[in-house]
Specification:
Strand order of the largest sheet of chain B: 2-1-5-3-4
CATH superfamily of the largest domain in chain B: Beta-grasp domain
Number of domains of chain A: 4
Largest interface: A-B, 58 and 56 residues
Strand content of chain B: 15-25%
Largest sheet of chain A: 7 strands, mixed
Number of helices of chain B: 5
CATH topology of the largest domain in chain A: Aldehyde Oxidoreductase, domain 3
Oligomer: heterodimer
Shape of chain B: globular
Radius of gyration of chain B: 15 Å
Helix content of chain B: 25-40%
CATH superfamily of the largest domain in chain A: Aldehyde oxidase/xanthine dehydrogenase, a/b hammerhead
Shape of chain A: globular
Number of helices of chain A: 20
Largest sheet of chain B: 5 strands, mixed
Strand content of chain A: 15-25%
CATH architecture of the largest domain in chain A: Alpha-Beta Complex
Number of strands of chain B: 5
Structural class of chain A: alpha+beta
Helix content of chain A: 25-40%
Distance between the termini of chain B: 41 Å
Order of helices and strands of chain B: EEHEEEHHHH
Radius of gyration of chain A: 27 Å
Strand order of the largest sheet of chain A: 3-5-1-12-9-10-11
CATH class of the largest domain in chain B: Alpha Beta
């Protein structure tokens, strides 16, 4: 049917957004609302000698000023990291303690030191500037590789050498042996540039304390309100779970940055209790650059060996990962189990080894951002493959073909068991759509205009649908990563789906409803999706890691299985037929092969009137389910980027970008394509434009949209998209997930294309015109353009 | 405090506001028209674009007090019984995801079409992309926003 699985249904949620009726956190106002503003450290590293709030407190309309030690005294806990990683010597990791507001020392620019509560936002901000903090500056270090050097400033007393862990995966001796026997070795030094996620809606929180019930409500920009409630209760001791309600209303993009429970939300909750007022805090963009978790920031050495036929015989990767001043929620998992486990790529490699040193620096915490570890792994793999092909004089597509995994399930040497895929088909589809055959002619034509044209591939695989609870538990995760759903069929037959997933742009209100519509043959209009409120929805784990389809929707399927079983029992009883003969289609419950039937809503009514139910059956038609995946899912694809470089200016134009993806079953192709467009654009942003820069003293240089270059509409092309589908065997719907693929697959395709165009492989991201021009000067113009 | 009177979405709106009050704050906090969003503090993101006397203006960059007597249209004022063609086009072409930048995109899109029509110029894909330099979207990759605006241009 037209609204079911596979249909490009227009989004149900659009109407409120296009008419300005969305309800984001900052749009909400409480009756007795006061405003919070944070006093933030201007230094990257300093001891706090004293805080003098006298002048601020004297301002009319200032309600209170509170500091970190007060928070600690009240028993508010330190901020946790969610994955315990062990070093290769077996020792547990060392992470520095993270107080929600600094108690004695600040370790990055922007770290909160005090909160000012006032009658207006403007006044709160003004008063925050009037709070005098006496700092004794300490030497700081911003680059992870520098933080590991002898004599580098130390951030935490319990973290010797700033080294959080030195982790490994794979067999080093085997990788060494493989490389020793290689006919050719390709070596690369790779910097994966530091990014700021930049959801356009800044973070915001409104904390509401009710002293009569000793109850808290938090409205917040969260991708996972239940996880927020869990950690706020269990670890930060704000309130027990039954006395804390977390609501994530409309949320304006997340990309990972709104997974975490930040110091500001914790502090606002506590300050609401202290002041007896609702406390609202909304970040501005400058604050966001200083305090939202950053991303990537890896420095890597990689060596890949090949035999004489171009078969990979060994891969060794050494990475230094910048974790920032404190270890954020997924910070330790991102450069380990979300990175090292993808270093087999789409290729059949026996010997892979990876070592990762995670490091504290005087920068804002680094955590998962669209792709999280997998973009870094893909960049390593796909830069190596393209470089190796050039060095060996091979077609880069052919080198990949020779190494593709073709049989599934495939056990890699780095934990993952790939369960499906057709990498040859994806490459073929990508090449056809990108008209690779016509590239030589286009290159010659570009040369006639004085332009350098290049083409680059990226064949990515990622692991998402995060994640099987037992597996991640064994790897150090602090929580299980299942999802839950409840299907409520009302007496009139309409359906409410309560889901622990949270939409902040992904269109769940549409796709989730399509899955239900498809199953029962009901119109989309009769189905509502409820999410984002811990008082309405049972426990949930939220949306990140491309998990809402692969995990969240399958929880709905599981709950629908139970509903269907009960519906069939009721119908069989009413229609005096066998349960096995009952079929549900087009909104009717029928006895197969007869004209006996009930309308869907009649079954709903029968369940609730309970006048004539089978003996022993409970009234009502409402079922819940928890779905715990049995494996990760493995989206894969071939991305082909074609660029033109102006050799006189170094300006790169992406003239064509082709994405051929395998996402398993697609529920709504329109929405899936939108996810690819957005993901690829973020990847192009990383490759060409975006870069967080701290100076040597830990001062943030890129603190606004004036200095941090976000992709604009004229930086990116219209995209060419293709699909080739293998169904995910591990879940009932067969979906793999599509949210992160674009950001994972695209950066190496772009850099491979530029380096192909200019004939110099020595180029780091972001490939700004200045860098590209310098790289051209380094080697001279390629022959064709002279 | 400064007294401000303007017409917002066809209705008289007035208030006493501090002189430093931005139009975006006046709309959001005083009139509670929260469809206009603020995504940055350097006039870059364009989530706050509204129309002042028929022209697109970043409401975070203009003082409410300077607009005494002005006609302001926000995203809430577009639908007149039925959705504006630009609103329809954004839905039809999946031109929005999280919706936060959308009001600014819609207001900029309408302004751009009006200007190109008035000048008799063709609004090509390249022109749309160039014209959107003052509006940042992090979700859509712009592909479907460009399609939406192009589509709306045909029906406006």
């Amino acid at each position: 049917m037209s609204e079911g699985i596979g249909a490009a249904v227009k989004r149900k949620e659009d109407k409120r957004f296009i008419t300005g009726r969305g309800k984001y956190t900052d749009d909400i106002r409480m009756e007795n609302q006061a405003y919070g503003a944070f006093v933030r450290s201007p230094h990257a590293h300093a001891e706090i000698r004293g805080i003098d709030a006298t002048a601020a407190l004297a301002m009319e309309g200032v309600i209170a000023v509170h500091t970190g030690p007060e928070l600690k005294e009240d028993g508010i806990g330190d901020i946790i990291t969610g994955w315990a990683i062990h070093s290769k010597d077996g020792n547990p990791m060392n992470v520095g303690a993270w107080n929600p507001m600094a108690t004695a020392r600040v370790r990055h620019v922007g770290e909160p030191v005090a909160i000012v509560i006032a009658e207006s936002q403007a006044l709160a901000r003004l008063a925050a500037e009037a709070v005098e903090v006496d700092y004794e500056e300490l030497p700081a270090v911003a680059a992870a590789t520098r933080a590991l050097e002898d004599g580098a400033p130390l951030l935490h007393d319990n973290v010797p050498g700033n080294l959080i862990f030195d982790w490994e995966i794979g067999d080093e001796a085997a990788a060494d042996a493989g490389l020793a026997g290689a006919a050719h070795i390709t070596e690369l030094d790779i910097v994966n540039n530091r990014l700021a996620p930049n959801a356009i809606e800044p973070r915001s929180a409104i904390a509401v304390y009710n002293d009569i019930d000793d109850h808290y409500t938090l409205y917040t920009t969260s991708q996972n309100p239940h996880v927020a409630r869990l950690v706020l209760s269990a670890f930060y001791n704000v309130a027990p779970e039954h006395k804390l309600r977390v609501i994530a209303p409309d949320v304006g993009g997340g990309f990972g940055s709104k997974i975490y429970i930040y110091p500001e939300e914790i502090t606002c909750l506590w300050a609401s209790m202290k002041t007896g007022r609702s406390v609202k805090w909304t970040s501005d963009r400058s604050e966001a650059f200083m305090t939202d978790a950053h991303a990537r920031d890896h420095v890597t050495k990689a060596r890949m060996g090949f035999d004489a036929d171009g078969k990979i015989v060994g891969l060794k990767v050494n990475t230094v990962a910048n974790i920032g001043a404190y270890a954020s929620l997924f910070a330790t998992a991102t450069p380990t189990y979300l990175y090292g486990t993808l270093l087999s790529g789409q290729y059949d490699i026996t010997n892979v080894y990876c070592d990762v040193k995670a490091v504290h620096t005087n920068t804002v915490p680094v955590d998962a951002y669209r792709g999280a570890g997998r973009p870094e792994a893909t960049f390593v793999m796909e830069r190596l493959m393209e470089t190796a092909a050039r060095e060996m004089g091979m077609d880069p597509a052919e080198l990949r073909r020779r190494n593709f995994i073709t049989e599934f399930p495939h056990q890699t040497p780095v934990i993952m068991t790939y369960d499906s895929g057709d990498f040859h088909a994806l490459l073929e589809k990508g090449q056809a759509a990108a008209d690779v055959a016509g590239f030589a002619a286009r290159k010659a034509e570009a040369a006639s205009r004085g332009k350098l044209r290049g083409i680059g591939y990226s064949c990515y695989i990622e692991a998402c649908g995060i994640a099987p609870s037992k597996a991640v538990g064994s790897l150090g995760a602090g929580v299980g990563l299942w999802e839950s759903a409840e299907v409520r069929v009302n007496p009139v037959g309409t359906i409410e789906i309560l889901t622990g997933s949270h939409a902040h742009g992904q269109g769940h209100e549409t796709t989730f409803a399509q899955v239900v519509s498809d199953r029962f043959g009901l119109p989309m209009d009769n189905i509502t999706i409820v999410h984002g409120d811990t008082d309405k929805v049972q426990m949930g784990m939220g949306t990140y890691g491309s998990r809402s389809g692969a995990v969240g929707m399958n929880a709905i399927v599981k709950a629908m299985d139970k509903v269907e079983a009960k519906v069939k029992k009721i119908a069989a009883h009413t229609l005096e037929a066998s349960e096995d003969d009952i079929v549900i289609e087009d909104g009717e419950v029928k006895v197969a092969g007869t004209d006996k039937k009930m309308a869907w809503h009649e079954v709903g009514l029968a369940a609730y009137t309970a006048h004539n139910l089978p003996d022993g059956m409970e009234p009502g038609l409402k079922e819940g389910a928890f779905y715990d995946p049995t494996n990760f899912t493995f989206p894969s694809g071939t991305y082909i980027c074609e660029v033109e470089v102006d050799p006189e200016t170094g300006v790169v134009e992406i003239v064509q970008f082709t994405a051929a993806d395998d996402f398993g079953t697609v529920i709504n192709p329109m929405i899936v394509e939108g996810q690819v467009h957005g993901g690829v654009t973020q990847g192009i942003g990383q490759a060409l434009l975006e870069n967080v820069v701290y100076d040597e003293d830990g001062q943030l240089i890129t603190g606004s949209y004036m200095d941090y270059c976000m992709p604009r509409a004229d930086d990116v092309p219209s995209y060419v998209l293709e699909h080739s589908t293998t169904v995910a065997p591990s879940n009932p719907l067969g979906v793999k997930g599509c949210g992160e693929a674009g950001a994972i697959g695209s950066p190496p395709a772009v850099i491979n294309a530029i380096t192909d165009a200019i004939g110099n492989n020595n180029l780091t991201m972001p490939a700004t015109p200045q860098k590209v021009w310098a790289a051209i000067q380094e080697v001279g113009l390629p022959q064709a353009a002279e | 405090m400064t007294s401000v009177t303007m017409t917002v979405n066809g209705k008289a709106a007035s208030g006493d506001v501090p002189g430093e009050t931005l139009l975006s704050d006046f709309l959001r906090e005083h009139l509670r028209l929260t469809g206009t969003h603020v995504g940055c503090d350097t006039s870059q993101c364009g989530a706050c674009v509204v129309h002042v006397d028929g022209k697109a203006v970043k409401s975070c960059t203009v003082l409410a007090a300077s607009l005494d007597g002005a006609e302001v249209t926000t995203v809430e004022g577009l639908a007149n019984g039925e959705l504006h063609p630009m609103q329809v086009a954004f839905n039809e072409n999946h031109g929005l995801q999280c919706g936060f930048c959308t009001p600014g995109m819609i207001m900029s899109g309408i302004d751009m079409i009006n200007r190109y029509k008035a000048e008799g110029k063709e609004l090509t894909d390249d022109a749309i992309r160039h014209e959107l330099e003052g509006n940042i979207c992090r979700c859509t990759g712009y592909h479907n926003i460009v399609r939406s605006i192009k589509d709306a241009a045909a029906s406006m």
